Input
Amino acid sequence: MRQLTSTPTHRITPTIGAGGTSWVATPDSVAIPTAAIPHLDVTAAERTDFRFTATGANAISNVTVDLVSQGVVPNVTIANVVANTALSVSFSSALWNVDISTPGQSYAPAGWPLTFADSTVATLLPTLWPSDDSRWRLAHWDPTSSRYVYASDSLGKLQAGAGYWLATMAPQLITVGGHPINAASVSVPLAGGVASGWNQVANPYRFPIADSALRVVVGANTHGFTAVGNTAVEHAVYDYTGSAYVSVHTLQPNRSYWVHKMVDGAVSLKFPNLSSTGPAPALPGLPDGAEWAVGVVARQGATATAPVMMGAGAASRDEGTPLRRESPPPAPQGGLTLHAGEPGEAHVRQISDLVAGGAPTRWVLELAGAEAPGEVQLVIDGYALPAGMTLWLGDPAAGWTREVHAGETVTLAAHASARRLTLEASFGGPASGTTATLAMSAYPNPFRGAIGLRAALPASSDVRVRILDLQGRLVRTLDRALAPAGESVMLWDGRSASGELVRPGVYLARWQAGAATGAVRLVKID
Output
């Protein structure tokens, strides 16, 4: 124990309720029972960290500093003391309730930092049970099979450290009671390898924990989550805002998050029993270990993906430079996703290979989950791009490649199936050449509800589409002023100009873009 100052200025007086064992002043790390030393004399310049330990079925129920509640945290820091300070810690053996609010007809991220005498879903969620996919859903991502498992399927128990999606038909407040965890740390195993490594996790404690406080355990080796030595798990924790994934630095209780395991074999994420907070989420920037990078975000309406980051550094990812930033799996109802590269492909290329060899650096982008027919916007940003570098976006299936610039938004047609694009970075032209064709096509064709009329334009232009029946009579006219260069989509809902559904049959879409004209045959079915 450190020597107390001979001329103390103020005192910290701790009070501990029933069930607590001690309070600890660190960095001395010496347990000091309150019966032996009822106060601690400090100067204003001193900083003292207190940790609280519970035993048996007891758990912290409240911590106050000068009557101001700090919550159920197991540690608190007192610094810059300018008056006598009262520190109080209360304990209780009662069950702790966790409330999860569901908005109704959409999924809420959920986690339960509790242990249970009976962890079965049927026991813990009696107001929802029996399982009924039409009325409510509980889902957890299984990275081994790359799919969601449900309470109606094989998801039968709730576990601390596991994250879930919870949805109810109507808005509802779901209350689950259990015992808080008092263990010094909790290890959450991560499943999957580089091809299927997304894990849906949750903070197993009732207080916030910063990502920098997490530890990654691989065999006998332990590294900080955000440390350079951690090459097993991507250095990012993702939270779902309701419309997009964002990278965060603090894991709050009662909520699920996503982390990405990037290697095969056993890996665990270790949570400490200490409260901490990280910085507020920042805008995407140049990732650690990269000399330059390109970030791509996909947007459709109010929904956006987390940025996919690709770039160049001193070494490939497999050699210790992690750079793999992409979207976690969507909620069980589906949603917009953007991924980069083939499974196991490095997302950081050696800058020396690019500069010395002159060959383009090329990545594959897979866009999926968009509402189709319709449009998706790709927002492209560059971070510390070398002078003279050119970016090229391409669609091998459609046979086009076009130059894009940092800060540009590119509009693409949304398809029901996954769409594979390429992104190249070079100091010249792209490896696949360029095309600048003007065309219009329709999809899905034949169609039942709505059909998308996809225009591929070499430059921005006004577009007009006239829908005609087989007798040449005008059914509907669609206009779009200043459609952007590249792809754009005009939707026909299968209705006439008067709003009536047209009969099944064959129709002709005559289009005009600038001086160019053409026609596309449409087939409407029941």
About this structure: The helical segments are 121-124, 351-357. Residues 131 and 153 are 9 Å apart (CA to CA).
